[in-house]
């Protein structure tokens, strides 16, 4: 279990990844610049974006400003992006990666993911990611929104096992099967939408536990992720929220707290179902 913003988890290729970071889904380029800058100033070292978000330029500028203001080096950060792989062959995936790298203004990525399985639209892109990784342009490669059967299909032909599977995950969608399969194969689970797009912030069960610990509902939910060894990347554009989201390392949920929160799991999604979302 990580114990600070800079604590890291060892991936299956021996690369270390921070267990807590900032997500920028649905954040404009302009707002992304400030969010990333303020996150780095607050001590964050992990930033997660994607080609389809349209804000990689904002992430790059935010990184530049954050590094200048803090004196940190690029090597201290862990930057993730994702390829929107719909209809992409091997060569197009390579081009998409190079475009993202140029837009971010970076020389390499720490982690690059295939964004969605689609209708099994990931085998050629994965081969491209493997070669990019082997060439040293990416430190680690993984996938996003893959169900267990997608992972099995990929592993049948993959030369390299994904290090990460980033999926919708929160107390109402705990993804037990995916987490168990990932643990068996050495694929770490990472949560997007950990706060269920805010829908869990007024949950009575969460609020009761929050009152007991004198913490916010968001802090309780994020702590639940951490204590379940799930990498988590909450999104925020407000500096106060960016800072408060990270103030979860000074308390611990009890076994009883965790059990109560676990009972909220009913499989409710706020995002698309990977088995039916085919980019249409």
Automatic annotation (TrEMBL):
Keywords: NADP, Oxidoreductase. Pfam families: Aldo_ket_red. Belongs to the aldo/keto reductase family. This is Aldo/keto reductase. The active site is at 53 (proton donor). Coiled coil: none annotated. The keyword Oxidoreductase applies. Substrate binds at residue 115. GO terms for molecular function: oxidoreductase activity, acting on the CH-OH group of donors, NAD or NADP as acceptor. Residues 26-265 form the NADP-dependent oxidoreductase domain. It comes from the Bacteria. It comes from Enterococcus haemoperoxidus ATCC BAA-382. The record marks 82 as: Lowers pKa of active site Tyr. The lineage of its organism: Bacteria, Bacillati, Bacillota, Bacilli, Lactobacillales. The keyword Isomerase does not apply.
């Amino acid at each position: 279990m990580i114990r600070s913003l800079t604590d890291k988890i060892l991936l299956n290729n021996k690369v270390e990844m921070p267990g807590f970071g900032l997500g920028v889904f649905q954040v404009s380029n302009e707002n992304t610049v400030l969010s990333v800058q303020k996150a780095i100033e607050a001590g964050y070292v992990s930033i997660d974006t994607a080609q389809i978000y349209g804000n990689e330029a904002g992430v790059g500028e935010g990184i530049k400003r954050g590094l200048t203001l803090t004196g940190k080096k690029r090597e201290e950060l862990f930057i993730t992006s994702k390829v929107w792989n719909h209809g992409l062959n091997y060569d197009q995936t390579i081009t998409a990666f190079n475009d993202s790298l140029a837009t971010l203004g970076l020389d390499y990525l720490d982690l690059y993911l295939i964004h969605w399985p689609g209708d099994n639209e990931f085998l050629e892109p994965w081969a491209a990611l493997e070669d990019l990784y082997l060439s040293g342009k990416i430190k680690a490669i993984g996938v996003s929104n893959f169900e267990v059967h997608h992972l099995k299909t990929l592993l049948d032909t993959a030369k390299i096992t994904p290090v990460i599977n980033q999926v919708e995950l929160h107390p109402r969608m705990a993804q037990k099967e995916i987490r168990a399969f990932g643990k068996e194969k050495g694929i770490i689970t990472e949560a997007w939408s950990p706060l269920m797009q805010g829908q869990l912030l007024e949950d009575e069960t969460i609020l009761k536990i929050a009152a007991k610990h004198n913490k916010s509902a968001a802090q309780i939910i994020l702590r639940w992720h951490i204590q379940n060894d799930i990498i988590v990347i909450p999104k925020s554009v407000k500096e106060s929220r960016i800072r408060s989201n990270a103030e979860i390392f000074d308390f611990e949920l009890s076994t009883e707290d965790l059990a109560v929160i676990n009972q909220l799991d009913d499989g409710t999604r706020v995002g698309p179902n990977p088995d039916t979302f085919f980019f249409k």
